[in-house]
Amino acid sequence: MNSIELVVTVDEAGNTIGSAPKETVHTDHTPLHLAFSCYLLNSEGMLLMTRRALTKRTWPGVWTNSFCGHPGPGEACEDAIVRRSEQELGCTGPNPGKWTRGFNHDAIVSVANPAASKAFGERWPHHECNRLVLYRMHHRNTSRRQAN
Fold first, then answer.
1. Which pTM value belongs to this model?
2. pLDDT attached to residue 1
């Protein structure tokens, strides 16, 4: 069964005003919605970056954060981070004793200028209330996973 992934739409103050199917929020009229971007450092301080799949609708092929996503309606951002770390990296995190939060910052990220969006290969504006999170991993993960 294929379920539709919903994202949370918000006002400029970050208050929830509704939800919308994920596929409809990245368009030429992108509404402000919740998102998160996670950055993982290993025990040596090296940053894990990932390259977005060429088939992705937004920012295809771009080297970016460790993983990112959108919390669903009623889903805490921390729970969404755990869900996406498993989906994107195949690891369960953040978990006590293995990941330490380095910083947490909420920011409205908006690339509404069509020229700027096109310069980065993007077809539409980017408009998110984005939680930026840094974690340090305290164990060595030697597995390698190929992106879809």
1. 0.77
2. 45
